[in-house]
Each structure stands twice: as structure tokens, then as C-alpha cells.
Design the sequence.
């Protein structure tokens, strides 16, 4: 087959290759025994192996496997060519630079293998993952962790200086490709994309690099220079100080990038040097010696406790936030967030992740699909925002709901992934006249709510979610059927409560013990929230007492550390601190309990569950489900109930961060990359609709309720609500 041919999976020229099975104990080549797989991808796998070439030459190594049947570039080069080039780099540089030593290479079953030395330690990316936002706090405050990271930074600069002195550009400088061994010594790895200035090889350079770290000239595939690595190192520095992936920060205008750097890096001199590193003009990027001296001075000043000049904080005004909201609402009508024929899409939850491409799917549910977008747009319209550009997609969304939930009888119930959440969205759309000139039968809501509940009790997909849906919908479309359904659901929850106040999640056990999930989405906190809300609306004594018993269980199962209250999973792992599973989600139930009982103990527990999350706003997941938008919604709920300014201040900090992470498409408008998706998605719990809802609520916290909650902020709802709705209730359960 010609080197210039495209590889296909059929025809006489196709050569089938078989990748090695990555099972511990299997042998590859003659000298290598697999210990474990470190990375798997269609292009190349990375394996940890034990090798033995002789009685004196043995040890642990990393083996990179290149599958030779992968698609080649325009020059006919595949992964084998990259690994052969990496071999050349290791042989050339290993005695001059701290990189893994070359051990060997071989071919087997049509695949190419490169073996290099194993660096026992951790990558910079691993260090940042381990410490999270504490790394940011450390490099700003100069504590022990921060000073250690700054010492690593100085070593990384020295590695790049040595590499460049040898006439080589790395071209894939990322936090993953700097290693620190167990003695604290830094190494540079992954020379696959490197370019030799002295040899003018490879020609042309291999494409491309890692998005977020690539300079404009690297993206344009210009001849490489050492300034590419300076840009990438600036991206790493911004990543350390922000705790956020550079892909959400660096791909923007020059002025916006300067403002981002100044926001995340308070120190004036360090932010200035990082901004210079990230300049779009290569000639404006500083020499690495200047960068090194800046960090040596920073380290010295931190060690001495010397004061340094800090950047003044600049805040976005409410009108600026409102303008971003309107711009993003308009973006929902564009190809960036919708398909021309099918409307708002989502990331396919059943497809394998692809780093560079979003695999689309179309759902009607609240969590992932078009119902969540309808809910956000309805509330935005109720606040006076212009949603007219989205009329066509709104009609498409109604068509999808009709097709997937009305015309079929086998669709699931559920608040987030089923018919119950869709019903709430339709009620919100009807309340705010979002469905003008769109035919929606008045029986749709009842038809959706009539789906038999799933067996689980959780609020995300189970009985508690159905309780919330019927509570909300009955105020928009009252019916005796909904009240009857509520009674049945409440009885089911009460019947399945354990004597200690908890609920068992299914029939799963851990080490012979019954499993209790504590979080809001799938656990006890969400069930408790639904019971409290039902009790608040109907004055029901049994549901109130059941909820309070559950809260006693939650308090007793909590761990405490320095005034912070947190929970662990059934296997003892600390749960991530978000709406879905962590302490902030549990705090929602404490907030609701305080609202119902006026018991100040619940305020104390709320504060303890949320206090430790102050610095969590510096986090790359922006979503409602597992990120800072959901955390911001909880802060706003705490402010609504307790009236303490600290919670509004924290919500404000999240709003300011989100504005700095907003991206702008030159044609389609404003959007966010909410989680790790390669392209923006519109959905509520994982995408742009949820981010917008938080910002809408931040500007209108007295008018909008928590998502999928009884709308206690709406004057219409207050007029319909029973007279006892907001009166504190005295409980027989004591804390």
C-alpha cells in the first residue's frame, strides 16, 4: 500500500493488525511482561511493563504501542513514524536532558512498540489533581505546598532551557508531560511531537498538539520555534493558578486573556510575566531566563513574607451579566447548540468519549435534553428576556416531547431522565407563555405524570422525584388525581424507611451491610427534601417526622474536621462536594428543614456543610450537576432562607468566575464548555442552560426558586398556596 494512501477497512490492500491484550502477566516482544495498562486509545496504548534483557539490565519501563492500521497524515505518516522519531529524540537527548532513557523498540503483530524508562513519581497534572484548589491557594499564599510547586516550576523552566539549548522544540508542553520523581526531581516526557531546529526534522512537523496549550502559530502549522513552548508553559502557569484547564481559558482575544490572567493571578509581576508568555505574537513572549528569574524572586519574597503588588479586582456589573445572558439565549438558536433539522442536541451518553469530537444525540428529558432548555427559556422569558430567536427550536422540542413521551406508552417516569421532569418543563412553559401558537394538549401534563414510578426512592429518577413533580404541577394545573398520586408516593416512602431513619438503596450491599446513599441526587438527602416539601405544602405530620428522623441519621453519619461537616461513600471515600452527591446537596435538606421548623440547629449544619467549600469556585466543571453552577444555586438558596450576606457573596464570586470563563464564537455568540466536552452542549444539568439558569437566578434571587423546586418566590404561587405554607412547624424529633 502506498504511503500516501488512505487506510480503509476493506479491500485487498488492507492489512489487519491485532493490538496486544493488556492483561497483567502477558508477554509482549521477547523481553517485556505487562504489569498494567496506563492508557488506552484507538491511536496508541501505554503500558507499564517489567523488562529483562540480561542479568544486569532489567527493571520497570513504559511501553508505547502504536497501532499501524490507524489513519495516516497527508504525508503518509502514522503513529509508528511518531514513535520512531521519539526513539531518535531519546537516543539523542537522554545524556543531556532529564528525560526517560531509551530501553528498546520492536514490532509485533503489525504494531510498533517503544520502551522507555519509568519515572517513579507523579506528573504535574497528577499533583494538581491530588491537591485541587489547594494548589492555587498554596502558590498565592506561599504555604508549604505552594512553595514546593514553585520550586517545581523553576525546575520545569530549567528543563525547557536545556531542551531549547539542544535545538529542540517540545511542541506538547502540558501538565501531563512534566514528571516529578520521588526525590522531587523534574523530568520531561513524551517527545513524540518534538521538532529539531538543527535538523529541520520532522519535515513537515507532526500535527498538532493539545488544545489550550497550543500557540496561534502552532495551530496554524507554521514552522516551529521555541516560542511555542513558552506559550504552552504560560498556559500551564495559568492552569496552576486557576485550577482550570487551559482549554477554557487561552483560546480568546488578547485583551480578554490579559484580563483573565490578572483575575486568576493576584500577584502583579507574575500575572504580567504569564500574560507575556501567552501573547499571540511570538516575539512578545519573554526569554525563559526572565521567566525563571521572576519565579525565583517570587519564591524569595514569599519565603521572607515580603509584601508584593497585587492586581486590583474588577467586577462585572449586573448589566454586563444580563447582556451575557441575552447573548447566550440567542446562541441557543444557532448551529453551535442546535441542529437545523432536529433542534437542541446533547452528548450521546452511550457513545465512547472522543477527545476531539462531540457525538450527538437527541433527548427530551430535563437532565440532558430539550425539556431542561425549555424550562430555562420559560423562566428567562418570565423575567423579560427576549427568547424570540428560539421559537423554531421550541417547536422542535415540543415535537420531540410528543414523539418520545406522548405518543409512546413505554417511556420512563422520573424527574431528571423521564416524564415527570418533562411535565414540570411544560408547566413552566405554559406559565410564561413560551408555547405561543404551538399546539400542546392540556392533558399532556397529566399523561406524563401518570407514568408508573420506578422502584427506587431517589429524587433523580424515583418516587421522591415524582412527589416533587406532582407538587409543582398541581399549582399550575390542580387535579384530585395528582393529590391521590402524591398520597400513594408518600406512603411508599414512609413504608420503606428503616428504623434508624435511613432508606436502603435497592438491594445492594457493601461487605454484607445494607447500602445507604447519602447524597441529594440518588440518596437520603433528596428523599428527605421531597418529604419536607410535601409537609410544608400540606402540613402533613407524618412526612415531617419521617424527614426529621432521616436528618438525625445524616447528622450522626457525618464526619467532622475543623468545623467542616462532610460525608463519605459506602466504601469510605470522601464524596465530591457538589449538588449531586456531596455536602452541598445534603445542605439543601438542612436549609429546607430550617425553613419548615425554624430550628437554628439546621442553620448550623448548613454552615458546616458549606463552609469548607469557599475556594471551590475555582474549578473547571461549570455544570449544575457536578460543578459550580449547582453550588451557586445552593448558595442562593441559603441566602434566600438565612439572609446571611456571605452566601450571596459566594454566589457572586461564582457568577464573576463564570463570566470570565464564557467563550465567544465570532458568528454564533456566547457559550460555555461546561464540563469536559469538546464542543458546547445546551442541556440543563450538564450544559449551558444550567449555567444560564444560575446567572438568571443570581440577578433575580427574589423571583426565581431553586431548579425543580416548589416556586416559593413566585407571587402567583403564593396566592394559590395553602395558608399554612410558610408557618414554622414544631417537631417532636429533637437535635
Sequence:
Amino acid at each position: 500500500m502506498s504511503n500516501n494512501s488512505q487506510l480503509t477497512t476493506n479491500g485487498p490492500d488492507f492489512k489487519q493488525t491485532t493490538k496486544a491484550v493488556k492483561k497483567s502477566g502477558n508477554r509482549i516482544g521477547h523481553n517485556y511482561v505487562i504489569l498494567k495498562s496506563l492508557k488506552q486509545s484507538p491511536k496508541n496504548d501505554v503500558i507499564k511493563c517489567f523488562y529483562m534483557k540480561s542479568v544486569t539490565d532489567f527493571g520497570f519501563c513504559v511501553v508505547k504501542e502504536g497501532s499501524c492500521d490507524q489513519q495516516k497524515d497527508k504525508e503518509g505518516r502514522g503513529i509508528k513514524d511518531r514513535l520512531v522519531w521519539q526513539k531518535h529524540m531519546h537516543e539523542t537527548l537522554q545524556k543531556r536532558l532529564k528525560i526517560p532513557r531509551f530501553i528498546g523498540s520492536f514490532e509485533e503483530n503489525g504494531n510498533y512498540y517503544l520502551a522507555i524508562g519509568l519515572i517513579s513519581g507523579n506528573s504535574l497534572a497528577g499533583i494538581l489533581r491530588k491537591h485541587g484548589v489547594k494548589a492555587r491557594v498554596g502558590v498565592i499564599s506561599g504555604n508549604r505546598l505552594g512553595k514546593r510547586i514553585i520550586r517545581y516550576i523553576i525546575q520545569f523552566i530549567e528543563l525547557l532551557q536545556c531542551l531549547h539549548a539542544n535545538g529542540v522544540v517540545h511542541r506538547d508542553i502540558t501538565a501531563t508531560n512534566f514528571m516529578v520523581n520521588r526525590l522531587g526531581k523534574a523530568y520531561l516526557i513524551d517527545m513524540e511531537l518534538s521538532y529539531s531546529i538543527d535538523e529541520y526534522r520532522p519535515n513537515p512537523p507532526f500535527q498538532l498538539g493539545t488544545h489550550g496549550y497550543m500557540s496561534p502559530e502552532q495551530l496554524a502549522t507554521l514552522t516551529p520555534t521555541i516560542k511555542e513552548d513558552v506559550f504552552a508553559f504560560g498556559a500551564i502557569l495559568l492552569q496552576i493558578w486557576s485550577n482550570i484547564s487551559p482549554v477554557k481559558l487561552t483560546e480568546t482575544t488578547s485583551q480578554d486573556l490579559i484580563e483573565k490572567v490578572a483575575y486568576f493571578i493576584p500577584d502583579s509581576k507574575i500575572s504580567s510575566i504569564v500574560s507575556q508568555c501567552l501573547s499571540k505574537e511570538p516575539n512578545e513572549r519573554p526569554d525563559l531566563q526572565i521567566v525563571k528569574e521572576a519565579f525565583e524572586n517570587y519564591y524569595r519574597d514569599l519565603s521572607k513574607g515580603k509584601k508584593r503588588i497585587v492586581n486590583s479586582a474588577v467586577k462585572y456589573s449586573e448589566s454586563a451579566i444580563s447582556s451575557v445572558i441575552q447573548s447566550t439565549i440567542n446562541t441557543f438558536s444557532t448551529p453551535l447548540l442546535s441542529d437545523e433539522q432536529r433542534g437542541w442536541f446533547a452528548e450521546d451518553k452511550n457513545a465512547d468519549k472522543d477527545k476531539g469530537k462531540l457525538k450527538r444525540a437527541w433527548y427530551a428529558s430535563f437532565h440532558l435534553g430539550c425539556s431542561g432548555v425549555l424550562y430555562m427559556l420559560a423562566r428567562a422569558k418570565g423575567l423579560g428576556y427576549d427568547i424570540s430567536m428560539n421559537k423554531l427550536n421550541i417547536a422542535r422540542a415540543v415535537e420531540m416531547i410528543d414523539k418520545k413521551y406522548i405518543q409512546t406508552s413505554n417511556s420512563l417516569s422520573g424527574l431528571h431522565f423521564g416524564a415527570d421532569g418533562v411535565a414540570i418543563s411544560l408547566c413552566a412553559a405554559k406559565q410564561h407563555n413560551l408555547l405561543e401558537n404551538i399546539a400542546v394538549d392540556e392533558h399532556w401534563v397529566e399523561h406524563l405524570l401518570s407514568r408508573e414510578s420506578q422502584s427506587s426512592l431517589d429524587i433523580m429518577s424515583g418516587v421522591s422525584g415524582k412527589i416533587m413533580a406532582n407538587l409543582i404541577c398541581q399549582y399550575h394545573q390542580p387535579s384530585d388525581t395528582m393529590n391521590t398520586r402524591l398520597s400513594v408516593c408518600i406512603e411508599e416512602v414512609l413504608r420503606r424507611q428503616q428504623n434508624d431513619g435511613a432508606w436502603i438503596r435497592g438491594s445492594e450491599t457493601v461487605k454484607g451491610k445494607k447500602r445507604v446513599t447519602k447524597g441529594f441526587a440518588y440518596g437520603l438527602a433528596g428523599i428527605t427534601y421531597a418529604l419536607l416539601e410535601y409537609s410544608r405544602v400540606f402540613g402533613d405530620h407524618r412526612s415531617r417526622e419521617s424527614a426529621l428522623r432521616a436528618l438525625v441519621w445524616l447528622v450522626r453519619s457525618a464526619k467532622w474536621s475543623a468545623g467542616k461537616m462532610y460525608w463519605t461513600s459506602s466504601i469510605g471515600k470522601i464524596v465530591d462536594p457538589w449538588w449531586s452527591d456531596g455536602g452541598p446537596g445534603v445542605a439543601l435538606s438542612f436549609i429546607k428543614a430550617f425553613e419548615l421548623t425554624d430550628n437554628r440547629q439546621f442553620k448550623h449544619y448548613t454552615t458546616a456543610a458549606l463552609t469548607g467549600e469557599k475556594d471551590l469556585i475555582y474549578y473547571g466543571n461549570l455544570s449544575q450537576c457536578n460543578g459550580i453552577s449547582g453550588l451557586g444555586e445552593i448558595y442562593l438558596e441559603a441566602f434566600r432562607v438565612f439572609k446571611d450576606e456571605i452566601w450571596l457573596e459566594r454566589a457572586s464570586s461564582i457568577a464573576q468566575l463564570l463570566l470570565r470563563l464564557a467563550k465567544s464564537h465570532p458568528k454564533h455568540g456566547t457559550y460555555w464548555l461546561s464540563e469536559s466536552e469538546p464542543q458546547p452542549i445546551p442541556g440543563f444539568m450538564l450544559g449551558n442552560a444550567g449555567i444560564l439558569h444560575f446567572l438568571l437566578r443570581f440577578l433575580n434571587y427574589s423571583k426565581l426558586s431553586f431548579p425543580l423546586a416548589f416556586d416559593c418566590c413566585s407571587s402567583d404561587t403564593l396566592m394559590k398556596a395553602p395558608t399554612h405554607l410558610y408557618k414554622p412547624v414544631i417537631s417532636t424529633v429533637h437535635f
About this structure: The CA atoms of residues 244 and 470 lie 39 Å apart. DSSP finds 24 helices and 21 strands in the chain. The longest strand covers residues 44-52. The two ends are 77 Å apart (CA to CA).
